[in-house]
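Good morning N.,

You mentioned wanting to compare the apo and holo forms, so I went ahead and generated the holo version with S-adenosyl-L-homocysteine. This is what I fed in:
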Amino acid sequence: MSGKYNNTTKTITCSVSNDCGGCCYTGIPYDKTLEIKEKKVNELFKGIYTTKRIVGMFHPINYRNKVHGVVGSGAGGSVITGCYREESHDIIPVDYCMIQDKKADEIISTLRELFSSFRYRPYNEDTGNGFMRHVLIRRGFSTDEIMVVLVTSNVEFPSKNNFIAELLKLHPGITTIIQNINNYNTSMVLGKKNIVLHGKGYIEDILCKNRFRIGPDSFYQINPSQTEKLYKAAINGASISKDDVVFDAYCGIGTIGITAAKHCKSVIGVELNPNAVKDAKINAKINGINNINFVCQDATEFLSENAGKIKADVIIMDPPRSGSTEVFLSSVLKVNPSRVVYISCNPETQARDIKTLIKGGYRITDMETYDMFPYTDNIENIVCMVKE
Ligand code: SAH
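and this is what came out, ligand included:
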């Protein structure tokens, strides 16, 4: 165990990592991968700030609570599941993945056998023929609730009830099964229509002592133990106190805003995905939070329309990989919060956006890096700023 990172020196090996492109750091001791990531962040923020530390995991394996498999045809008419080869649509069979939840891998293995015995033909992207396209498993690590999403090319599901009964017999821990219809010629995994085949149609998980409902197509952080540390850092970094109004931009199912709401006067959450907003509103109720409102709108549109009207002491922003927009950032400057916390899964776009905020009069008070995706080259970074 290394003193500096307080993490394991574990090295993982994987038979498919060369092909799948997911874990580029297999074969390298874990501590070393953290050093590489820390260096990367510091290069991106050169001349601006130096990250204090990178927070790694004690057990950096089997951490993914969401596992996706593309369904395809293998040799001799067999059914395979796996991932696309990097920059192609060839399917690499994956039976076990070191970073994925073990239970999810076991369920996917059963699904492969059941698809064969029920003669569900894998979907073929070139011809548009076939039925089964993708499988998606989500597991609440705290609640042990498990969701299985079967993405099919059309609604008709032959022998549906027998199939569900068989799957539940083999995996009684599955709490909900959803059929998602995706009949588009697209590389997107999920289509728009969900049909609940078993259970509630969602799972719940507990994060930072709050209970969250997660639907099949809402964003939820894939590594909950690291997420708890990240959210605590966000709330501490924003020095939130009971008179503060907090704006939670790109709020997903409301996880950060709901966690912050207990420490402040009120929260406004903005999110583009309507299903995530529905979940967020329910999540506030489940946790008895009354001082939070959610708006379903593009974050840039909302903030630019309301910059003159809303008061926010703190803006927490957690945009997708592409980062935020110039208009959003200039609206932040108009709202003029005394603190900004910027969480990002792509420090490259984050560094770009932070430069704009620095030009607008903000100063970095803290920066911490979280290894949310061990052995992959993804990095989660949090920057806390104050208005000078
Ligand atoms: N803060 C949340 C979600 C972060 S992921 C969490 O920690 O769980 C980024 C979120 O931004 C996703 O939920 C995505 O649907 C949303 N999003 C993407 N583009 C957006 C936009 N233009 N306006 C508002 N939300 C957006």
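The first helix runs from residue 17 to 20.

Happy to go through it together on a call whenever suits you.

Best,
F.
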